[in-house]
Design goal:
mainly alpha, 4 helices, 82% helix
Length: 93
């Protein structure tokens, strides 16, 4: 049972890494736009614009996939808590 719980915990951590693509990159682009708007960045690097265009094409599927992974992660978390309590008889607050 300990092996299953470690595996489920690893899957939950990996599922949360998609958060970088869902929220981290849009924050980077938003900050770049904000800094350009207030005059702190004169020119946005060309590579950043091409990366933005690629990610913009996949925006909706990434949001849907991120939501599905988040639900899957919470489901695994709930399952891991049930497995823990079933074996040891403990109670979580």
């Amino acid at each position: 049972m300990q092996k299953i719980q470690k595996t489920l915990s690893g899957v939950v951590v990996l599922s949360e890494l998609s958060h970088i693509f869902c929220c981290g990159l849009p924050i980077l682009f938003s900050l770049s736009g904000l800094l350009a708007g207030i005059g702190l960045i004169a020119v946005m690097p060309g590579w950043l614009d091409s990366v933005h265009a690629v990610f913009h094409a996949y925006e909706i599927p990434m949001i849907i996939a991120s939501g599905a992974v988040l639900l899957f992660g919470w489901g695994l978390h709930t399952l891991a808590r049930r497995i823990d309590c079933r074996n040891t008889g403990c109670s979580h607050p």
